[in-house]
Amino acid sequence: MASETVTPAPRILLRRQGMWRLGLQRLRRNRSGMLGLSLVAFVVLVAITCHWLAPYDPNDQSAALGFGTSKGPALLHLLGTDRLGYDILSRLVYGAPTALAVGIGAMMIASLIGVTIGGIAGYCGGMVDELLMRFTEFLLVLPVFLVILAVVRLFGIMVVGSWLERVPDLNLITIILLLGCFGWPSIARITRAEFLRLRHAEFVEAARCIGTRQRDIVLRHILPNALPSIIVVVALGVGGAVLAEAMISFLGFGDPNSISWGQLLYFNYETMRIAPWATLAPGAAIFITVLGFNLLADGLSDAFNPRLRQ
Amino acid sequence: MNGVARFIARRLAFGVVLVAGVSAIVFFLVNAIGNPIAMLIAGQPNATEEQINQLTAYYHLDEPAWQRYLHWLGNLAHLDFGTSITYNEPVSDMLLVWGSETLKIQIPAILIAFFMAIAIATHASMRQYSRTDFSIMAGALLGQSLPAFLTGLILILVFAYTLGIFPSYGAYSTRNPLLGSPLLDALWHMVLPVSMLAYFNTATLTLLLRANLVEVLRHDYIMAARASGLPERRIVFGHALRNAIIPVLTYLGILFGLMLATAPVTETVFTWPGLGFLYINAIQQLDYPVIMGVSVVIAVMLVLTTLATDIAYVFIDPRIRLD
Q1: Distance between CA A96 and CA A168 in Å, rounded?
Q2: Residue B194: what pLDDT?
Q3: Please, are residues A184 and A117 in contact by the beta-carbon 8 Å criterion?
C-alpha cells in the first residue's frame, strides 16, 4: 500500500525540525553571527590553552633587568613589555580566562535570578507580577555602575582585618557577584515576556488538560520554549559584563592580584605616549571579546526569531 | 490632558521612590565602613583624639545612621547636600560646577549624534544594500562595539600625542588659553571628549534608525507615495522619517542615562573635571557627602530624562496615549 511508504517521512521531518536544530542551521547561514561565534570560540580557546600559549609567566618581571620596560614589540617579546616589565602577550593571554570567568560567572548568577523572578512574574501574573516588575524597573533605572564602584571600594575597606581578607581573588569575586546581582533585570524582563506569551499557548493548555503537574508545565513545556530568547539576552550580557569589569579595573577598583585586561589598561594608559602597545593590546582584546558576544547575540536573535527579521 | 497629568504625577512619584532608594542604598553602604573621619585622619601623625572627636561631632558622625539619613533627607528638601570633607566646600555648589562640565560634553555629544544619525541613516536607507549602505553599517557596528573609553584612548593617541592638534586632558588650559580666547580654549578642549561620546551615540542611533527606516519604507502608504511620483528624498524625509524616528527618540533617553552612568570612565580618560571624575575621587577619599550628592543628582537626571522622553512620545505619536 502507498501509505506504508509515505507515513515514515513526516516523522523524520519532524525530528529534524526541532527548534534548536533549525535555529542553529539559520545561525550557520548568518555571516555576522558566525563571525561572532568564531571570535568567541577564539577567546575561549585562548583561555583554555593559556598555560601553553603564554611565552612567559604572567608574573615574570625579569624583562625589566635585560630587555627593558616599556619596550616595543620585538622577537623576544612579541607585543612588547609594559612599564612594570611584564610581557604583554603573556598577560593578555592569561587575561582571557579572567574575562570569561567574569562574563560567564556574572551571567550565570544573573540568569538564575532573572529567570526565577521573570518566570514567577510571567506565570503568576496579577499582583505578584506587578510587584516584581516594579522592582525590576527600579533596578533597571538605577545607575548600577556607580553603585558597583562604591560597593567594590567600600567592601575592600570593610574586609580589612577579617577572615575574608585571606580569600584569594576576593575583589574579583566581589565584582562577579555584584555584576550578577545587578545584571538580571533585562533577563527577568525577557523571561516574563516569553512566559506571558507561552502561558496560554495551545500546547501548554493541552499539557494542563492531561493533568501535567505545575512544575513540569513550567520546567518542561514553557521554559525550553522561552530559552532561545533568554540565551540572546544572556549572550549580550556576557559581553556587557566583560566590558563592565574592564571599566571597573580601568578606574582602579579592580583586583590588583588578578590578571585582567582592565588592570593592564589601568597600569599602562598613563604611559600611552611612550608605550602605546601596552594600552592598545588589552583594548583590542576587550574589543574582540565584546564584539564577538554582541555579534553572536545578534546572530542568535536572527536565528531563533526569524519572523522579526523579514 | 488629565491623563497626561496623572501619568506625569505617577512617574514623578516613581522618580521620588527611585531617588530615595538610591540615596538610602548609598548612604547605608557608606556608613557600613564606620567613621570615615577617623579612617582618613588615622594616617596623620599630628592628629589628636580630641581633633577627631571634634570633627566627628561637626559632621554629626556620632549619631546613629538612620537619624543622620533622616537629617540628610531633611536638608535635601532645601537643596542642602552638606559640606565636602576633602574640599571643605558646600556640595551643592560643587555639584553645579562639576555637573555643568559633565553636561557640557554630554549634551553636545547627544545632539550631534542625533542629527548625524538622521543624515547618515536616511542616506543609507535610500541606497539599501549598496556598497555605501554596507560601509555605513560596518562603521556603525564598529562604533557600537568599540567601548567608548577605548575610542577616547585611540583619539588621544592619534590627535593629541601623534598629531598634537588637540589637548589630551582637562577642560581648560591652566595658562595661555588658545589664541587668548577662553571660549575658543574651552571648545578646543571639548573636541576629543565630545567626539568620543558622539561616535558611540551616532553609531547606535544610526543602526536603530536605519533598521526602522528600512522597515517603514515597506509599508503601503510609502508605496502609495511612490506611486504618486514623489521623489525618493521627499518620501523618506516627509513620510518615512516621521514614523521611523519615534523609537530613536526614546533611545536618546537611554543613551543619555548610559553616558551619565559611565561618566566616571569617560571623564577619567580625559581627566575631565565632571561629575564622574568627582565621584571617583570622592569614593577614593571616602568623601561621603559628595558620594551621596553625585549619586542623587545622577538619579534625578535619569528620572527627568525618562520622563521627558515619555512625554515627547505623546507629542510626536498621537497613537500613543498615556495612562
Answers
A1: 18
A2: 95
A3: yes
Contact B298, B235 (CB under 8 A): no
B13-36 burial, b at 16+ Cβ within 10 Å, e below that, comes to ebbeebbeebbeebbebbbebebb
What rounded mean pLDDT belongs to chain B?
A: 85
CB A88 within 8 A of CB A281: yes
Chain A partners within 8 Å of B145 (Cβ): 287, 290-291, 294-295
Higher pLDDT, A284 or A200: A284
State whether B147 and A290 contact (CB < 8 Å).
yes
Please state, in angstroms and rounded to a whole number, the distance separating the CA atoms of residues B98 and B115.
Answer: 27
Q: Is A247–B265 a contact, with Cβ atoms under 8 angstroms apart?
A: yes
CA nearest B297 in A: which residue? A143
Q: What is the CA radius of gyration of chain B?
A: 24
Would an 8 Å CB–CB cutoff place A290 in contact with chain B? yes
d(CA A277, CA A77): 12
What's this model's pTM, rounded to 2 decimal places? 0.87
Residues of chain A with pLDDT > 90, as a percent, come to: 37
Question: Could you tell me which residues are beta bridge partners of residue A81?
Answer: A87
Indicate the helix (H) or strand (E) that contains B124: helix B91-125
Q: Which residue in B196, B191, B190 sits closest to B273, CA to CA?
A: B190
Rounded to whole angstroms, what are the CA distances from B190 to B97, B143, B267?
16, 20, 12
**Cβ–Cβ < 8 Å for B154, B176:** no
Are residues A187 and A111 in contact, defined by beta-carbon separation less than 8 angstroms? yes
Q: Which uninterrupted H or E stretch holds B194?
A: helix B182-216
Spatial distance between the Cα atoms of A179 and A244, rounded to a whole number of angstroms: 8
Helix axes A170-182, A144-158, angle to 10 degrees: 150
CB contact under 8 A, B284 and A153: yes
Task: Compute the distance between CA of residue A130 and CA of residue A114 in angstroms, rounded to an integer.
Answer: 15
Q: Degrees (nearest 5) of the Cα angle B40, B44, B47?
A: 100
Q: Residue B191 has which C-alpha cell?
A: 573636541
Rounded-to-integer distance, Cα B306 and Cα B250, Å: 8
Q: Which three cell numbers stand for residue B89?
A: 566646600
Q: Where are the beta strands (DSSP E) in B80-208?
A: none
ipTM: 0.86
Q: Which of helix, strand or coil describes residue A79?
A: coil
State the pLDDT at residue A16: 55
- Is B297 an interface residue toward A (CB < 8 Å)? no
Q: For A77, list phi and psi in degrees, rounded to 5.
A: -130, 100
CB count in 10 Å sphere of residue B287? 25
Residue whose C-alpha is closest to residue B315's, from B240, B244, B249, B234: B249
Q: What gap in Å lies between CA B251 and CA B111, rounded to an integer? A: 13
Residues from chain A contacting residue B268 (CB–CB below 8 Å): 250-251
The candidate with the shortest Cα–Cα distance to B302, out of B17, B2, B9, B6, is B17
